Amino acid sequence: MQRREVVAALIWQQGKFMICQRPEGKARAGLWEFVGGKAEAGETLEEALIRECQEEIGVTVQVGAPYMDVLYDYPDIPVHLTLFHATIKEGTPTPMEHNAIAWITPKEIAHYPFCPADIPIIERLAKEKL
To answer: CATH no. for residue 82?
Structure first.
């Protein structure tokens, strides 16, 4: 199975970063993740992230530098996840494709079960922001 390019946004506001809870009926339902999704054919990773943030939470983001890359093999799909620093340029985050949106501090990470591909990122965030 071919590895899919997946993008996600690390968005900080007032010392907290945004996470989203996956909806029922989708793989990994109920787990938390960073907003984002799969890149489509012909899109750059930055274009994919802008589109996904508009579709999933209704905001326009400014994409910054990559924060971290993760290779992870889910049973249904192998992914190459690139997490970018991003800032909201326009709009207010609204959970259009998720159960909920939360803003958390790195100290609150343990209270949220994350998708397995996000675990290395979460571990790095926790170490850096102690």
So the answer is: 3.90.79.10
